[in-house]
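Thanks for the sequence, V.! I ran YmaF family protein right away. Repeating your input here for the record:
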Amino acid sequence: MEKIPVTGFVFHSNDSLSDHSHGLYITSWDGRPYLHRHMFSGITSLNDGHVHEYVGITEPAPTGVPHFHRYHTVTSMNDGHTHIIEGATGPAIDLPTGGHVHYFEGFTTISGMHPHTHHYKGTTGNEVG
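Predicted structure:
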């Protein structure tokens, strides 16, 4: 029988019941990191008479463990300027059909002929390998 190298860790649950449980979280399979990312996109708030669109993909994070993702992208050019969007998502939100998404929210960098920021928020797409 062929052996496949797997790495990960066991997480002990502090359930209030007399029984307790453990979860196995795999971080690599057959020598490859067991990671995933999420697509995200949206439109910023209206400020200084315009909005910006944005699209990106999060940094990778381990699959199956409590985690968040860092993200970074540049908005579309509008009114002669762009803004940077960056931050970290909230924790995973499980989907009833499998997989999960993350909520994200923040403010862009300051930019423009009349310096200003835009608010943005949204939910990532489902996980992608």
